């Protein structure tokens, strides 16, 4: 019976000897070679190194460059990975990896070399006139590691264990959740609808962009999630008039959670504003299909207007996944219920005056007024106005109403006042005259 396990034993001279198959003769008989060492660990390492050298010498990738092996890997992986993943890998290779390793021997690109390159890749990218984000670095590391493992598999070597340092996103705080719900209530736009669905349904950006109006059941308050949207390279981009990228809609594999999720019933009216039979629910400004990157940019832009720059879809979905998407917060805000005054139509004077004080300077500059001119229009001293603008003095309610009139009826600032929620429906109801 053939011997199995390690072929290591201790010699009479105290050394350890290990044998391994170096080759086979024409009849298939094994030809052994021996290595020696002072310990089992030492000879085991020598055997592994020798086997690796033998495997590499007979490997189909022997003598090939990193680029050649990477192209072979992509050709083989194209049918097994998502089209967006394929495009990201290809972009990362062409933009960041090939400039450094296209002609480098595959055997010289090791895990240690990848880790070294990741540290200097952002600086190298900057020299070529582009920025490399943390997510871009993850893609670079992933594709280089996959190419290395592909090469190892071709050589019969065990794959390396790849550790990806992913960004840890925090869930929304209660204050942030309340603020987003409040801004969504006063700003009915695709990005805020997407933000609410991400928080309360856990939808990904690709799923949001692929969501069809017909997939929303307003009776059961359910959303059927079965497709995802990607922006990928256009295979016809070399033809005249063709775009470099196109948006594609793909069916989600069942193993990746085709699912039905419930949404808060109070969002029905909000959703109905965007529902259009047979059309995507989240559409771009031209009433066409939105894509994940554009949707992320919309959210970033509107959150910067709300002075909430650290909000992104990863944090919104993390809130849902951690069970911290409190629907009661959404219900209270959409119904106008506040802890200090639980009834519809309550005007939160403290919040409104505080929020306006934060925006006095940019609003004033947008309509081209100086501090002195603004103070004169309000009928107060320049010093008092400066104190309100720098936050050392509170804005009184009568001054708030004066400022609201001035900025809401100026075409340069009307949209901003509405976007910031400084003229809420509850206040509009309070100041109606004669039921008009």
Summarize the structure.
The protein has 436 residues and is mostly helical. The protein has helices at residues 40-57, 66-77, 83-101, 111-127, 134-154, 174-186, 190-201, 205-210, 268-272, 292-305, 313-321, 327-335, 349-358, 360-366, 371-378, 382-389, 397-408, 414-419, 425-430; strands at 8-10, 16-24, 30-37, 216-217, 222-225, 227-233, 245-251, 259-262.
List the helices and strands and how they pair.
Blueprint: E1 8-10, E2 16-24, E3 30-37, H1 40-57, H2 66-77, H3 83-101, H4 111-127, H5 134-154, H6 174-186, H7 190-201, H8 205-210, E4 216-217, E5 222-225, E6 227-233, E7 245-251, E8 259-262, H9 268-272, H10 292-305, H11 313-321, H12 327-335, H13 349-358, H14 360-366, H15 371-378, H16 382-389, H17 397-408, H18 414-419, H19 425-430
Antiparallel strand pairs: 1-2, 2-3, 4-5, 5-8, 6-7
Helix pairs in contact: 2-3, 2-5, 3-5, 4-5, 6-7, 6-12, 7-10, 7-11, 15-16
Number of helices: 19
The dominant shape is: elongated
What class, by secondary structure content? mainly alpha
Question: The CATH topology of the largest domain, please?
Answer: hpI Integrase, Chain A
Which band does the percent of strand residues land in? 5-15%
N-to-C series of helices and strands? EEEHHHHHHHHEEEEEHHHHHHHHHHH
Q: What profile does the largest beta sheet have?
A: 3 strands, antiparallel
Distance between the termini: 99 Å
CA gyration radius, whole angstroms: 31 Å
**What does the average pLDDT come to?**
83
Strand tally: 8
CATH class group of the largest domain: Mainly Alpha
In which range does the helix fraction lie?
40-55%
Runs in which pLDDT lies below 50 for 5 or more consecutive residues are 339-344
């Amino acid at each position: 019976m053939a011997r199995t396990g390690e072929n290591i034993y201790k010699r009479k001279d105290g050394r350890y000897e290990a044998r391994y198959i170096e080759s086979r003769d024409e009849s298939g008989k094994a030809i052994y070679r021996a290595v020696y060492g002072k310990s089992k660990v030492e000879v085991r390492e020598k055997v592994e190194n020798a086997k690796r050298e033998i495997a590499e010498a007979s490997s189909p990738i022997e003598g090939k460059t990193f680029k050649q092996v990477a192209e072979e890997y992509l050709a083989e992986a194209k049918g097994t990975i998502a089209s967006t993943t394929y495009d990201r890998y290809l972009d990362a290779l062409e933009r960041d990896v090939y400039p450094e390793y296209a002609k480098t021997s595959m055997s010289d690109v090791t895990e240690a070399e990848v880790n070294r390159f990741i540290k200097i890749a952002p600086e190298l990218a900057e020299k070529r006139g582009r920025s490399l984000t943390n997510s871009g670095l993850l893609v670079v590391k992933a594709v280089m590691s996959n190419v290395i493992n592909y090469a190892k598999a071709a050589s019969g070597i065990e794959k390396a264990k790849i550790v990806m340092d992913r960004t840890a996103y925090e869930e929304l705080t209660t204050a942030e959740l309340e603020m987003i719900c409040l801004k969504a209530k006063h700003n009915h736009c695709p990005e805020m609808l997407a933000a609410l669905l991400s928080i309360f349904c856990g939808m990904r950006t690709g799923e949001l962009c692929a969501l069809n109006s017909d997939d929303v059941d307003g009776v059961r308050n359910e959303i059927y999630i079965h497709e995802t949207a990607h922006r990928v390279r256009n295979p016809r981009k070399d033809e005249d008039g063709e775009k470099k990228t196109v948006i594609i809609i793909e069916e989600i594999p069942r193993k990746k959670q085709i699912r039905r999720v419930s949404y808060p019933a109070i969002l029905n009216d909000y959703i109905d504003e965007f529902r259009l039979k047979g059309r995507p629910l989240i559409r771009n400004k031209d009433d066409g299909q939105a894509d994940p990157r554009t949707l992320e940019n919309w959210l970033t832009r509107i959150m910067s207007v709300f002075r909430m720059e650290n909000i992104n879809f990863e944090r919104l979905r993390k809130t849902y996944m951690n069970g911290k998407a409190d629907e009661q917060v959404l219900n209270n805000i959409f119904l106008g219920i506040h802890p200090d005054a639980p009834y519809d139509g309550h005007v939160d004077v403290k919040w409104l005056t505080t929020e306006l004080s934060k925006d006095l300077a940019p609003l004033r500059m947008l309509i081209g007024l100086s501090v002195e001119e603004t103070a004169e229009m309000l009928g107060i001293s320049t010093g008092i106005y400066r104190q309100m603008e720098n936050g050392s003095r509170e804005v009184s309610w009568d001054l708030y109403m004066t400022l609201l009139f001035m900025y809401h009826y100026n075409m340069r600032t009307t949209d901003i006042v509405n976007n910031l929620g400084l003229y809420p429906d509850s206040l509009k109801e309070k100041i109606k005259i004669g039921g008009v």
